[in-house]
Amino acid sequence: MNKDGPIIIIEDDVDDQEILKEVFKKLNYTKNELIFFADGQEALEFLNQPKIIPFLILSDINMPKLTGFELRNKLKTDAELAIKCIPYLFFSTALNQKSVIDAYSMSVQGFFVKENSFSGLEKTITVIMEYWKRCAAPNNFENPAQ
Q: CA 115, CA 68: separation in Å to the nearest integer?
């Protein structure tokens, strides 16, 4: 996990993208660049670049081309991508028991509901950011074997 790396947001709704930009700016989480993708396939192509190590991924579930579940599966099963230790969080309005069970069975690190209010969204983003900024990951060490 690269705590100074970009935050990948996979969201096909342009209005939601704009609101998220405002929330991150208002909360002063500007050290991490926000990179938006409208579908999972575009995100996968970006993430496959060897030097790209994001801080975390916030992914919607229902997207064109490659869904959030399909993208998560590819990141988890591809050795080159898995070694990057990128926290993968679902951030969706698609809240139902099956989606949550499916998400956690794929070893996602969180499932968050997109809040309807700006203040609710601020609270959720704050919780996510503060938690992951404090978390340790295997690739935070120079020599993982020690």
A: 18
Largest CA distance in the chain: 46
Query: 39: which 2 tokens?
Result: 């579908």
Task: Tally the residues of the chain.
Answer: 146
Amino acid identity, position 89? L
72 contacts: CB under 8 Å, gap ≥ 6 = 59, 88, 103, 106, 108
Contact 58, 9 (CB under 8 A): yes
Report the pLDDT value the prediction gives residue 47, as an integer from 0 to 100. 94
pLDDT tens-place string over residues 70-87: 999 999 999 888 888 899
Average pLDDT over residues 54-62: 93
Chain centroid to CA 123: how far?
16
